[in-house]
Amino acid sequence: MSSEHSHFHVVPAAINFKVFLALIGLTILTVITARINLGGPWNIVLALSIACTKAILVFLWFMHLKYSHAINRVVIGSALFFLIVFLGLTATDVFFR
Amino acid sequence: MSTINFEKGVIPSHHFSTVSQEYHAGILGIWLFLATEVLMFGGLFVAYAIFRNMYPSVFHDASQLLDMQLGAMNTVILIASSYCMAQAVHYTQKGETHHAFTLILLTILCALFFLGVKYFEYQHKFHEGLLPGMNFTHANATREMGIFFGLYFVMTGLHAIHILVGIGLMAWLLLRFKRNEFSPHYFIPVDGVGLYWHIVDIIWIFLFPLLYLIG
After folding, report:
1. Which is the CATH superfamily of the domain at B19-212?
2. What is the value of pTM for the model shown?
3. How many CB atoms lie within 10 A of CB A91?
4. Do A75 and B68 touch (CB under 8 A)?
5. What is the dihedral of CA B42, B44, B47, B48, to 10 degrees?
6. In this predicted model, what pLDDT tens digit does every residue of B31-52 receive, in sequence order?
7. Where are the domains of chain B?
8. What is the ipTM of this complex?
9. Which residues, 6+ apart, have CB-to-CB distance to B163 below 8 Å?
10. I need a labelling partner for B9 at 20 to 30 A (CA). Which of B120, B128, B193, B215 fits?
């Protein structure tokens, strides 16, 4: 999007508003689905999926990652990658002991 | 899909060759800081995952003691504040700084409201004897429930400190807006504080279901 170095991208106000509405809608969805017992791990799986969707919306549009330099995506992506490594390796020890 | 051209005879700081280089370097610096924030909270989330896996029924019962409606209200407030902040950056980029000023003021009001709700929640929990330590005197208090509330207070407390810092940073932005220091050619501080504010929102997006909704 913004490969031209001398330009940056202005996210249109209409897109910001749509993202805001989507975030509110997903919050309502997560509160409603939390009241329904889905059985097994499915409640937490659904709640975290909704949370991840909301986080992606904020990252891409409110934080302009969709339009900014790839290096910014690499930086935050590496932090999230190592968080998954941290959680994953801990899980292999603690959860399957 | 409007874009703004940086180079219009605007002079960058002396250690940068162009204004856009200065902008992109500044924003990269913010993202590096946000990466460390993700890892700091990440440690707490991993601790949560371990203890939740060890004591699922205790976590289930303990989370029932939190007020889900207050948590949901605070979630909506933070999302609204994030939207105001995103719009503040939008208007600064377009040069309509008086709109940006109002929106940052609104963001601060949302943040104060969030902290107000958190204050009443904490006060209520202290009163019920749910603060781990000497005053952990709740009728159902167990060591395992202490772990849940220990995590609750540390995670939401660290998050609340971030809100406080954010309020300070936004007040600083308001002062600089008053001095007309921001324009479409220079707005790194607005963008940077905005990015910080959004990551604080993202952390709450995960804290809310994990602490309040695991019923």
Report:
1. Cytochrome c oxidase, subunit III, four-helix bundle (1.20.120.80)
2. 0.93
3. 14
4. no
5. -100
6. 999 999 999 999 999 999 999 9
7. 19-212
8. 0.91
9. B111, B114, B115, B200
10. B193
